[in-house]
User: Fold this.
Amino acid sequence: KNEVEQSPQNLTAQEGEFITINCSYSVGISALHWLQQHPGGGIVSLFMLSSGKKKHGRLIATINIQEKHSSLHITASHPRDSAVYICAVGKYGGSQGNLIFGKGTKLSVKP
Amino acid sequence: ETGVTQTPRHLVMGMTNKKSLKCEQHLGHNAMYWYKQSAKKPLELMFVYSLEERVENNSVPSRFSPECPNSSHLFLHLHTLQPEDSALYLCASSQESWGNEQFFGPGTRLTVL
Assistant:
């Protein structure tokens, strides 16, 4: 079992829908990261959080440290949101820079 | 140029070739990373450099050889690769290495014939 699990693996939505992607982890962490990877490969860091909630535009990330769970929400989804969303955790006490990555959730938003 | 750049973007090589991947960051960061992304597998950390010194080497085969001549540049030298080494190789940088936000380059798509 991976230390970082994401669900769902694939998600198709209609434009305008509210989207939730989930991430569960089994280790103590220093921080959790949400990343976005577009076709072609480039990765963009969306959020880094260690508690509570962060919001940036239509994106919201939450984390529950006790439950070892994080969610990424997209409000009013748009086709340009189509990408792979990756959850990664910095393991508490882990080696420098060593993030553990989930397998990603592939999101497709249809117009 | 801004952010993190990688060259080449695509590379096809034979198993007997020697090639190098280049990464350059223009963010003033002091830590740089090499990752491998294979199909249907999570990103795998290969190497971490902090202040130009290697601080992490995740049991990577010796046919991959990193080099960090200064805090802005990172190379990955490749020789005698295998077809299973075909993957997307991503470079990233951050300010200090532990737990901080990493900024990724666009990646090099490597195919080994």
In short: The interface with chain B takes residues 2, 4, 30-31, 33, 35, 40-45, 48, 86, 88, 90, 95-104 of chain A (CB under 8 Å).
